[in-house]
From TrEMBL:
<feature type="transmembrane region" description="Helical">
    <location>
        <begin position="135"/>
        <end position="157"/>
    </location>
</feature>
<protein>
    <submittedName>
        <fullName>MFS transporter</fullName>
    </submittedName>
</protein>
<feature type="transmembrane region" description="Helical">
    <location>
        <begin position="340"/>
        <end position="361"/>
    </location>
</feature>
<feature type="transmembrane region" description="Helical">
    <location>
        <begin position="314"/>
        <end position="334"/>
    </location>
</feature>
<dbReference type="InterPro" id="IPR011701">
    <property type="entry name" value="MFS"/>
</dbReference>
<dbReference type="InterPro" id="IPR036259">
    <property type="entry name" value="MFS_trans_sf"/>
</dbReference>
<feature type="transmembrane region" description="Helical">
    <location>
        <begin position="45"/>
        <end position="63"/>
    </location>
</feature>
<dbReference type="Pfam" id="PF07690">
    <property type="entry name" value="MFS_1"/>
</dbReference>
<dbReference type="InterPro" id="IPR020846">
    <property type="entry name" value="MFS_dom"/>
</dbReference>
<keyword id="KW-0472">Membrane</keyword>
<keyword id="KW-1133">Transmembrane helix</keyword>
<dbReference type="InterPro" id="IPR050382">
    <property type="entry name" value="MFS_Na/Anion_cotransporter"/>
</dbReference>
<feature type="domain" description="Major facilitator superfamily (MFS) profile">
    <location>
        <begin position="10"/>
        <end position="453"/>
    </location>
</feature>
<feature type="transmembrane region" description="Helical">
    <location>
        <begin position="242"/>
        <end position="262"/>
    </location>
</feature>
<feature type="transmembrane region" description="Helical">
    <location>
        <begin position="177"/>
        <end position="199"/>
    </location>
</feature>
<feature type="transmembrane region" description="Helical">
    <location>
        <begin position="282"/>
        <end position="302"/>
    </location>
</feature>
<feature type="transmembrane region" description="Helical">
    <location>
        <begin position="373"/>
        <end position="396"/>
    </location>
</feature>
Length: 458
């Protein structure tokens, strides 16, 4: 039996993995007010829990790409999904900030691996003109997961278990609702494994692909079954575009992380929304999904019109950088509706940018080393996210009365004056900073010569 358009079914599975990934990730932020109250966590402790996740994410990025290149996309992806799903289930038994931080650290070790695996799947299954769109499609899974998460986990967290399901309520001493939410969302990934293991193979190994589709993939620079040794770490780290792209993501990904981890809290504390009303965050995640698709589609259209892939990505990134200066007005406008519209515009641009900077990796790196290089570049993303968390936590909470954790102390040693300058200033300085991150990153990428990079995988 042959499946028509099998490559698109493959990307649908990767999309669903991303949905599961972000549902598990967003369970904490969607339920943060309730969990913080139950576990006695202040905003700095919340930031430390998030940073433990991102620290593990950074470590896992550096390892997972090489692991995917060695194990292959099919086995590597399955390993990561099982790991993060079980980590999310175990979170249901967290008893305080330390155990919650440990569980989120374990989650981060698993969740990072899906992204280098996804980029490798795209390099194997898609010609160059379709890669940005494919990346946009699976990245949209992250935004769909973020949209779904509050609508799934908030009802689970607020359900009357004591009155209607006393057996379930008896499993936990307190916080039954949010604990059940972690269990249910963790099990979603386990179910996803069934179609993945049945369907995914490399194109030439698949019995389900048609001859025409295989020819299209290989003629367009997709997977060709030639055994080549992957790059060594010396080759990876001496490849100049790796550092340019890492720096680009370090500067710009914090904007997207802010919307994942802090925007719901901003709406709660600065706009007065209660736990149930935080479902409104679906608006920014819809915008993120639209940005993912639009960014991939637009650069793909420029490739079809004759632009080189890297040039096409950079033109779209320029448009995104021009849109990000709407960010400061989000905190300035009086009405909630106006703030949400502006936030949607900023997130649309941030995700369209992210799709295209990710596509550049696939454009210029040989297929045998895409996973490794992608993971190194993406490590810059999580380092930027950690810095954002520390800065925003200081902005919104002011000086802490509790002893700082190792992340607080280490960051203060490096950026003590910056922390002192922004402590207690609220969210507005961060919204202002987000106006400049993407334009600055684009200038650095251009000055570093990323536009002159030649595609190694086309």
């Amino acid at each position: 039996m042959r499946i028509r358009g099998l490559r698109w079914w493959i990307v649908v599975l990767v999309f669903l993995a991303a949905v599961s990934n972000y549902i598990d990730r967003q369970t904490l932020s969607a339920l943060a007010p309730t969990i913080q109250a139950d576990l006695g966590m202040d905003d700095r402790e919340y930031a430390n829990v998030v940073n433990l996740f991102l620290l593990a994410y950074t470590i896992a990025y550096l390892i997972s790409g090489k692991l995917v290149d060695r194990l292959g996309t099919r086995a590597g992806t399955a390993l990561f999904v099982v790991w993060w799903s079980l980590a999310n289930v175990v979170t249901a038994w967290a008893q305080g900030p330390r155990s919650m931080g440990t569980c989120r650290f374990l989650l981060g070790l698993g969740e990072a691996g899906v992204w280098p695996a996804a980029s490798k799947a795209v390099s194997e299954w898609f010609p160059s003109r379709e890669r940005a769109l494919a990346i946009g499609l699976y990245t949209m899974g992250a935004t769909i997961g973020a949209i779904v998460a509050p609508y799934l986990v908030i009802p689970l967290a607020t359900f009357d278990y004591a009155g209607k399901l006393p057996l379930v309520d008896g499993l936990f001493d307190y916080g039954t609702g949010w604990r059940v939410a972690f269990m249910v969302t963790g099990l979603i990934g386990i179910l996803w494994l069934i179609p993945w293991l049945m369907l995914y193979r490399r194109p030439r190994e698949s019995k389900l692909i048609s001859g025409d589709e295989l020819a299209l993939i290989e003629d367009g620079g997709g997977s060709v079954e030639v055994e080549e040794r992957g790059w060594t770490w010396v080759q990876v780290l001496s490849f100049r575009p790796v550092w340019l792209l890492l720096l680009g993501r370090l500067l710009t990904d914090p904007a997207w992380y802010f919307y994942q981890f802090w925007f719901a809290k901003y709406l709660n504390t600065s706009r007065g929304l209660d736990q149930g009303s935080l479902e409104i965050t679906w608006i920014v995640y819809v915008a993120a999904g639209a940005g993912s698709l639009a960014g991939g589609w637009a650069s793909g259209l420029l490739v079809k019109k004759g632009r080189t892939p890297v040039q096409a990505r950079l033109w779209i990134m320029l448009g995104c950088a021009c849109l990000m200066p709407v960010s400061p007005f989000i905190a300035k406008v009086a009405g909630l509706n106006s703030a949400m519209v502006l936030a949607a515009c900023a997130v649309f641009a941030a995700l369209a940018w992210l799709i295209n900077i990710s596509a550049i990796v696939v454009d210029i790196v040989p297929k045998h080393s895409v996973g490794t290089v992608f993971s190194v570049v993406a490590a810059g993303s999580t380092l930027g996210g950690i810095a954002m968390n520390m800065i925003v936590a200081a902005m919104v909470s002011g000086p802490s009365s509790k002893p700082g954790g190792f992340l607080d102390q280490g960051f203060k040693m490096l950026f003590g004056r910056l922390i002192e300058a922004v402590e207690g200033k609220g969210y507005e300085p961060w919204f202002l900073a987000m106006a400049f991150l993407h334009p600055l990153a684009l200038l650095l990428l251009w000055a570093g010569g990323i536009h002159r990079s030649r595609g190694a995988s086309q």
